[in-house]
Specification:
This is SET domain-containing protein. About 25% of the residues lie in helices and about 20% in strands. It has about 270 residues and is an alpha/beta fold. Strand 2 and strand 3 form a beta hairpin. The structure holds 2-acetamido-2-deoxy-beta-D-glucopyranose (NAG).
């Protein structure tokens, strides 16, 4: 296989840079899901909660009370037992869930499927996890035989490989950027137990003649106003700790309604060197 020793980069052509939805809509979707994940996990996050400002803390406590009342009044007495799986949280907040499974494309390995619900057109359906490199940063060794590197339009690279050196680097950057109990990124996408169920975008297969693309990539810079307690669900981390530039994320957005059982297909090209 030519891929074993060569270096490949995934990219989308310049023409496709028009955003399907606004940054505000991407932010809205991520906040909705992350906040629900955080609430679901609230009882396990006491160390995080203690460092939050009082106003933020009480806002969550209010939300938590409302949520528990809505779910089941009996569970209110044992809030520590209300703990849904991340996929269920995604379903509850955006109306669908996605997961990896054997692709419907022969020899494509794994793919990503809508496992439940309906993905309405123009919805954030997935995120592309990985270490983010500025275009001047060295990525040579990580890129050898690695088909998971995504190149953004400005040359920023995202290494979404969950194995080998790529994994080690992500973990070390993620550990570096911790602020006490606050994690600035999610590294569970490197494990079988993913905390952010959207972080499977690197496994979305390319379209083909008989399978049209139903999702597209869209770049998103995490704004400064992003709540610090929700950064623990961001599946991206900067390779260098340069705090000047915002964190780059890439999300996948549905180009049409996608039904339960359908596989996601994007449209990307590769440069081989
Ligand atoms: C992805 O699919 C498109 C359309 O079928 C094709 O032109 C392109 O070369 C494919 N990319 C890769 C990396 O195979």
């Amino acid at each position: 296989d030519y891929r074993v020793n060569s270096r490949t980069l995934r990219y989308v052509p310049e023409e496709s840079k028009d955003k399907v939805i606004t940054d505000q809509e991407v932010l809205g979707a991520l906040l909705k899901v992350f906040q629900a994940l955080f609430l679901n996990d609230f009882h396990k996050q006491t160390d995080v909660v203690t460092v939050l400002p009082e106003a933020v803390k009480s806002a969550y406590q209010g939300l938590l009370a409302v949520q528990h009342r809505r779910v089941n009044p009996l569970e209110n007495r044992h809030p520590q037992q209300i703990n849904l799986k991340p996929e269920d949280i995604l379903f509850k907040t955006l109306g669908f869930s996605v997961a990896r499974a054997t692709s419907s494309v022969l020899s494509a390995g794994r793919g990503v499927f809508v496992t439940k619900g309906l993905v309405p057109r123009g919805t954030v359906v997935s995120m592309y996890p990985g270490t983010v490199y500025q275009k001047y940063e060295p990525v040579f060794f990580q890129s050898i035989g690695n088909p998971f590197i995504f190149r953004c339009l400005d040359g920023t690279l995202i290494d979404g490989n969950d194995k080998g050196l790529s994994k080690v680097i992500y973990r070390s950057c993620s550990g570096r950027d911790r602020l006490g109990p606050l994690r600035m990124s999610d590294s569970t996408w490197l494990t079988p137990e993913i905390h952010n169920p959207l972080a499977v975008g690197q496994y979305v297969n390319n379209c083909s003649n008989d399978r049209a693309a139903n999702v597209c990539y869209q770049e998103f810079d995490v704004p400064a106003i992003f709540p610090v307690e929700l950064k623990q669900y961001l599946p991206n981390i900067a390779y260098s700790c340069d705090k000047q530039s915002p964190l780059r994320c890439v999300v996948l957005v549905a180009l049409r309604d996608i039904k339960q059982g359908e596989e996601l297909f994007s449209n990307y090209y590769t440069i081989v060197s």
